Amino acid sequence: MRTRLLVAALAVVLLLAGCSSGGTRDDGRITLRFQSLAWQEESVEANKELVAEWNATHPDVRVEYVQGSWDSVHDQLLTSFEGGEAPDIIHDASDDLADFAYGGYLADLTELLPARLKADIPRRSWQTTTFGDGIYGVPFLQEPRVLIANETWLKKSGVRIPTPEQPWSWAEFRRVTKELGSGDGKYGIAWPLKEPVSATLNLSLSAGGRLFHRGADGKVTVRFEEGDEVVPRTIHDQVNTDRSASPTTLGSGGSDTLPGFFGGRYAMVPLGFSYRQQIVQQAPDGFDWTVLPAPAGADGLAQGVSPQTLSIAEDCPYKKEAAAFLDFLLQPRNMVRLALGDWMLPTGTEALADRALRTPEHGWATGTALAAHLRPAPAQTVRGYPEWKDKVATPALQEYYSGAIGLDELRDRVEDDGNLVLARYQR
User: What pTM did the predictor assign?
Assistant: First the structure.
């Protein structure tokens, strides 16, 4: 009886192992599970086409496409890692990787990636997926935050139109939005800040903001300094002093602002570069819009980004085969296809030079001009950042932008409460 129970238990273990990461079939063929977070129709199509092309030319290593979701990816991955059921190849974002990398869930790609791929992607992009001495993801798509503007409104107003070569300063940007707002329910800007932390931190790099400071001992502390004040103070004053920014959109997502933008309530909306696809699809006939660079500060057009990434699970038994698939997926011609499908910018220098990504149509040329100014997001390698963001920074910024608290209280909460949170992850 005991022997039968042991055999049965072993069978269950083997079954579960076969249901988790990639495995081999009876015919010896390897199967790798690739979880993609692509969601736009063009992006999903591009990813599935590339998987099909790989499978057609690699009969011994089959890739199975698995659809994931940005809304739940962190918790879903954590559960799958702990349960031994993680996909072999993982699509995520660089600001979600730190805890997974330090937790031993992701494979170090340093010796797995081909020299071609390492050389094609700039060092600043690799910094977003480097934790300690290892590389735990390939950064492959990125998007700057830009100003989507009502072109007719701006031209009629006579304000100076910024370019990547001559952008607005943050002070000029505030003056322009005040001039564009008419006070009759029309606003110069609509800030969609349902999730305010990423936008605030990433744009603050242009003003010299850092917020997170790593000491010689490797520990990170939060300091809200002069450069960190510029962006939040600008937004606060647009909403509460100038009345040039709509107060009702502060709790909105980016898509929520588009009906008002099309309806002539807002002259501009700061959005991620990929929102252009929704605008192309949804804008009414005859609506003229343009893409402008975000304002520049003491550090020019510098802006933080958290690129989309591709990683390999540490439990994947076929890491070399998985790395070969990543090399195929991120060949320059394929990276261009993925970028066009997601309406984003590739990190690869060869793909970024493609003519299809440098056309003035739909603002592609403006986006590619900003690529050289993109930097790792300030919180990129900070352990405990998700908790700090959710429990400390998000409510504090929301209250500050709405006028409920002042700048001093914002600083105290972000620093004091934030350092208490981070300390728990750095013992």
Answer: 0.88
